[in-house]
Write a structure and sequence with these properties.
alpha/beta; Carbamate kinase
Amino acid sequence: MKNLIQKAKTLVEALPYIKEFYGQTIVIKYGGSIGDDDLHNFARDIVLMKFVGIHPVVVHGGGPQIGSHLKKLGIESKFIAGLRVTDEETMEVVEMVLVGKVNQKIIETIHSMGGKAVGTSGKEGKMILARRLDVKKFALENGLDIPEDADLGMVGEVECVNPQLIKVLENSGFIPIIAPIGFDEEGRTYNINADHVAGKIAGALKAAKLILMTNVPGIMDKDKNLLSSITESQARHLIKKEIISSGMIPKVMCSIEALHDGVQKVHIIDGTIEHSLILEIFTDAGIGTEILL
């Protein structure tokens, strides 16, 4: 009986959060670094969110899967400032893996849990207008050193987001699953950082939350202790002190930008924790790091 009462208390604890986020959009970035074993838990959490009246929008990465496929094809992966150099041959593989493999696998898993998902990339519905990433500007903003002649090729950044297709899917009962690919006004396709895409989409939708799921607990201080909450000024200070470094920098910067674009709250959480989304959204304690202005 005690176990049953505890389950009932857990449901009651979730009630105010269900009321708060009912009818609201929450954008979730599902990292490619999260293992396949965690996908079923993630899909179950997403389906539960939809059934209690929340609109989840999923943007996914796929870096490890792209690297693995390129290796099979005998194509060497090269990186500058932590970003994959993407020539035309590599871009074809990137699009095939993200849209044809990773995207479809997430959809299939959500369907197996009783949900309804639709896969898309930023090219469908003219969702993501992109431009070639200015790698020197990116490196400067993130405190990174790059060669003078650095060229990332078909790596892009979001110029603007048209959220119309996402809203149509949401209102029709579907969960949008978005691959981080966009194109410019000349029709050139670009590989875009998934955190950046998720932040821009969350801003365009004025989402209640942006949740970046990765394979680390969140943002750590200099003693490797988890920071449960951090402001923009504190985050910039930690970046300057190189306490926030490497791949966490673009996550933090896109989080700050999303907040300035109108997103209410941003969280960086460990997607390898079982039911991490449920713990973050529906419990008093939450997990990971919340970023505030």
